[in-house]
Amino acid sequence: MSAPDRSSWEDIRAEVLRRLNTRVWKPGDLIPGETELAREFGCARATVNRALRALAEDGLLDRKRRAGTRVPLRPVRRASFAIPVLREEIEGRGLAYRYVLLKRETAPAPSEIGTAMRLGSAARLLHVTSVHLGDGAPFVFEDRWINPEAAPGVTEAPLERVSANEWLLMHTPYSQGDITFTADAVRTAEAAALAAAPGQPAFVMERTTWNLERPVTTVRQVFAPGYRVRTEL
Amino acid sequence: MSAPDRSSWEDIRAEVLRRLNTRVWKPGDLIPGETELAREFGCARATVNRALRALAEDGLLDRKRRAGTRVPLRPVRRASFAIPVLREEIEGRGLAYRYVLLKRETAPAPSEIGTAMRLGSAARLLHVTSVHLGDGAPFVFEDRWINPEAAPGVTEAPLERVSANEWLLMHTPYSQGDITFTADAVRTAEAAALAAAPGQPAFVMERTTWNLERPVTTVRQVFAPGYRVRTEL
DNA sequence: CAGTGGTCTAGACCACAAG
DNA sequence: TTGTGGTCTAGACCACTGG
């Protein structure tokens, strides 16, 4: 009735998915073990394992040693999306990309920046603000602090031409980071650069990254009103 | 110098990651092939494959047949986060969860809903609005349309007690969907339920799901001002 | 303690794309 | 054409955990 003749782990994944979506296997059910499924599909256990592991990574199955593989009662689905490299995001929409450096200075870290980056006191950072435009219209306003010790050469980088975003991607790896998304009102200081009215709702992305425990950069990106992040499940 | 004595694919992953973060292998570089790495690490090629595949899934390597494995010039990192089941999201913050059904009616789909769900004309849907509260304070306002044909039994579901969110999770699987995030101004119709002023910036999540090509539900969730989504990289 | 998933191996063949 | 990653296999041992 079901098992495909030619198996690959993706076929098995698809078939298991079908059984989940058609409720052949219902939430709370224990599904057959890998060995039995391997027999049914006529393949090696490792192949079944690959398929089930992929589904478990998507939150569609719960797997535990000894306990077996179970259909979760309330599947916790995960959404994932690419963190946009702004130039590509903008060009991907068919718009001409332009980037304008607004400010570049070396300054002691304000306390909230120091906290976000878990910096010691009184570190001097590179502070850069800029706008990314699509077809001449402001797309994102960016306020960034960079730790020169973790990004050697950044003080001499040609940030008039290359956005800090891209310069860092090419010159400074990072091993960990965190992102938050918020809706925030456009601030007075940002309004002009964004060609938006202060107080308008804007999508805001804040990121801080570290490389091997050393803080690299923290950035606040304010997207022009109307921006949408879209992804599939 | 580097290769751990005892290898597992995670050790190899970690070691490769270290070489990327310390720029032993730089952006644009071609790294050694699986066979050679297997020799270096003293393990089977499949083990190296597992490690490199994991890194490639995170966007930290580019792999192509025949061409080999390359360190991307501009790594496209992906962020992923769990789509919150609201009750758990709220309880996870240590708040008491409460849910209030505001409206429940059967109505023809408005055109924008029909479009989002790719419905034929004149379908009658179940329309539900509700609020989820944490310690009594509005947390999310939810405006949802459900296709009864894809969610049998939903018309009789006790939505006064169980949120449509949870009822659907337990009773109706979905195979695909899309999500968008936006910042939007709180609408007048939502303001009272959210205890927020109209026009305030709010984080908005819109989701539509299908099960095997049949539209299941579309929902707009407006989070109370100040809400933040946070995840790690 | 026993049964499940987690991992590893050695070998094989295949699919793809660069030269 | 040829070398690379992608996948599969059959078998093995291990780690965790439920009963």
Walkthrough of the structure:
The structure is a homodimer of 233-residue chains. Chain A has 233 residues and is α+β, with helices and mostly antiparallel strands. Chain A is 27% helix and 35% strand. In chain A, the strands form two sheets. Chain A has a six-stranded antiparallel β-sheet. In chain A, strands 1-3-2 form a three-stranded antiparallel β-sheet, with no helix packed on it. In chain A, a hairpin with a 3-residue loop joins strand 2 (62-64) and strand 3 (68-70). In chain A, helix 1 (9-21) crosses helix 3 (45-57) and helix 2 (34-41) crosses helix 3 (45-57). Chains A and B meet through helix 1, strand 4, helix 6, strand 8 and strand 9 of A and helix 1, strand 4, helix 6, strand 8 and strand 9 of B. Strand 8 (176-185) of chain A pairs antiparallel with strand 11 of chain B, so a sheet runs across the interface. Chain A binds a DNA duplex (19 and 19 nucleotides) through helix 3.
Biggest sheet architecture of chain A: 6 strands, antiparallel
- How do the helices and strands follow one another from N- to C-terminus of chain A? HEHHEEEHEHEEHEHEEE
* Mean pLDDT over the residues of chain A: 92
Query: How many angstroms separate the termini of chain A?
Result: 28 Å
Number of strands of chain A: 11
Envelope shape of chain A: elongated
- Helix/strand-derived category of chain A reads alpha+beta
Helical content of chain A stands at 25-40%
Structural Rg of chain A:
24 Å
Q: Roughly what fraction of the amino acids of chain A lie in strands?
A: 35-45%
- Strands ordered across the widest β-sheet of chain A: 5-6-7-10-9-8
Low-confidence stretches of chain A: 1-6
| Greatest interface (CB-CB under 8 A), with counts per chain | A-B, 54 and 54 residues
DSSP summary: helix tally of chain A: 7
Classify the oligomer. Answer: homodimer
